[in-house]
Amino acid sequence: xxxxxxxxxxxxxxxxxxxxxxxxxxxxxxxxxxxxxxxxxxxxxxxxxxxxxxxxxxxxxxxxxxxxxxxxxxxxxxxxxxxxxxxxxxxxxxxxxxxxxxxxxxxxxxxxxxxxxxxxxxxxxxxxxxx
Length: 131
What we know:
This protein is an alpha+beta fold. The protein folds into 2 domains: 3-48, no CATH class; 53-121, SH3 type barrels, CATH 2.30.30. 28% of the residues lie in helices and 31% in strands. It has helices spanning 3-19, 21-26, 35-48; strands at 53-57, 64-68, 77-82, 86-98, 101-107, 114-116, 120-121. It has a 5-stranded antiparallel beta sheet with strand order 6-5-4-1-7, with no helix packed on it. Strands 2-3 form a two-stranded antiparallel ribbon. The radius of gyration is 16 Å and the shape is globular. Residues 1-26 form the signal peptide. Keywords: Signal. This is SH3b domain-containing protein.
């Protein structure tokens, strides 16, 4: 198992927990008196980084999409994504223009990492808020 596979699994689990925080909290034992307070804190944390849309990376054959530390091409690259990869998005932000598109998406589970919206296809019905 390589590092990328492990990272993908961790991101997928984090995304599912963000989508279903109540289910994750219901599965934890509530025998301890502090459990309700912990559930409130965890729910609040997930609310701040809620997944609002799922997209698919679309790049030219053999090219990868750069994950950036900020909303622009001048920010450092922190990783890459292959074409066809599903990504979970929390919000959108204006940044450096890429092929006429200034919008960048913040990735869920990547600690404030961004990808250019030019390379990510999101369903028209998705209501992605501004960061």
